[in-house]
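Entry type: protein chain
Record version: 2
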Amino acid sequence: MESNPAVLSVAALASIAIVLGFSFSPAARQSHPLNLVLLFAFTAAEGVLVGAVSCQAATEVVVLAFGITAGVTVGLVGGCEDREHTHGEQQDIRCALLVHTDRTTAL
């Protein structure tokens, strides 16, 4: 990405714009074909960002980040699935953390 920083900038701006679009527009979240297209575009933009960051980082750092992300995700999924000991808001918070962690830890 050193040879073409515009791709990284466009991917970062697209990712932020799509998240803001989902946050402020109920139509973007609730209309069937539009929300799938925006979700695909967001995933593609995040993929470009993660790929660019991974290319610049040392292999050991990338493997460590992957391991930490996998461990946190497995732990949170286990917490979301344990319905016997968590109730209501606690379970909702853990599941929300799972979604948030998957989106941010990979970067």
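Comment: The longest helix spans residues 32-56.
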